Amino acid sequence: MRAAGRIATSRAVSLSATVLIGYGLAATLGTSAVAILVLLLAAGGDATVAPPYAYIGRVLGFTLWQALLSTALSLLAAIPMTRALARQAQFPGRLLLVRLCALPMVMPTIVGIFGVVAVYGGSGYLALAAQAVGLDWKPRLYGLGGILIAHVFFNLPLAIRLLLPAFASVPAESWRLAAQLGMGSRDIFRIIEIPLLRQQVPGIAIIIFMLCFTTFAVALTLGGGPRATTLEVAIYQALRFDFDLRLGAMLAFLQIVFCAGGAWAVWRTGRQMVLGTSARLVAYRYDGRTRGARLADFGVIILGAIFLVLPILALVQKGLIGMIAAASVASLLRAGLISLGLGLAGGLTATLIGYLIAQARQRAVSLGRKRGAMLLGLAGRLGLFVSPMVIGTGIFLAASGHIDLYRMAAAGVILLSAVMALPFVMGVLEPALEVAAERHDRLCAALGLIGWNRFCHIDWPTLRRPIATALALSSVIAMGDLGAIALFGNQDMVNLTLLLYSQLGAYRLDGAASTALILLALALAFYWTIERVVGGRELH
Questions:
Q1: Is 493 helix (H, G, I), strand (E, B) or coil?
Q2: For 495, which of 50, 166, 296, 353 is 20 to 30 Å away at the CA?
Q3: What's the predicted TM-score (pTM) here?
């Protein structure tokens, strides 16, 4: 009876915590709605001017088109490479290559963009190779082509990381049975792998589509003109340069509608962006032992590795050479310290909010509240379907006249960076909390362990490593985020990301190379240090 009473009390406390956090999330969503409402009210002065529907239609059409193409190309490249990595489970450098697939996720976007420019730009490696063989040809990077290349560079590794655990989940007995039945590669692909892909690919495609649909840094840097303007860039231009609040609000509303539909589709497919899953252990497959299969698989792996490694090598090579033309040591040191401070603050904010949301969602699931769990999950992915530009500008307008926004600009950067990093924090913490709940909820309820006592004695030792991964990932994302610093940054708050963007915009490529290399090295060191210090020494 006492145990039953403790369990009932624990469930009641859990329900109360869920309700309280639910109110907090409702306030967060309400803030976004109020921000957009403020924009609409502030822009409603001249209702006689017709909105530029042709421009809006062109921007929306290009946004959808580039997102669809980027998603299709990323998956078309990821499926054969993932299949090759799954069939060839043991070869020198496999684990290093799988870990390399995590690099674009922690690499600041603007740094990856520079690597792409260093390879595919007018004076990049491809152009130099063409000149070496006597061809008068230069690739046209800026425009749709450059956006697609950059999106595939960032999303191909993500798709591989999401697909590999699915291939690894096939029982070893299935592969042994297939070998005993004499099934060839085509039969295995038709009977085992196609059903697996049908189950996994739609959800992954929607996630990649949403990431490409809300692209900002890639389209802003590589768009090359009005013809390659996405919704996020158009919102930024309308609010930051034209101060056309009505247009910005309309574009933001369109983005919310489409991304909310994408979020609903992700929920319907049951596919969450689960990060941090190890793909080291893969069952032995007999269909990849033939000479033809090995040649085909390693050919695909080598091509994919070259595509991923070449921009990184170009970045390192040009960065070391460009150290002579680097910015002054004082400006780099100041920008680096600002990057570290903003990144750590944004990461801590995102991790704390993400942990509370993930805990509340897990409580809602355990109590059978599916709709509440769905709403909490969507709230944690707010940055995927609500433009941070609109949220930031709404806060700017609402606080105007009440707060010194020039002095409080850092708070705006931290908040928006945390919103952008929150979906990735949820992707790390949600599966870890689900496993922890299955193992410990009943025992903690029977012992009456709740609140802070449970966190200190049970949750922290169990969830320390996922929390460290979430904090490291969100801090690096916040440190490399261009959108927030581009909106709130000023001459007294220039981090390495904004400095690199200004150098690229002024075509100071040598200085940009050194800044990009410093930013990449700082991000990797930052990520490793946080995981090491917070997560402990025995990290996989």
A1: strand
A2: 353
A3: 0.80
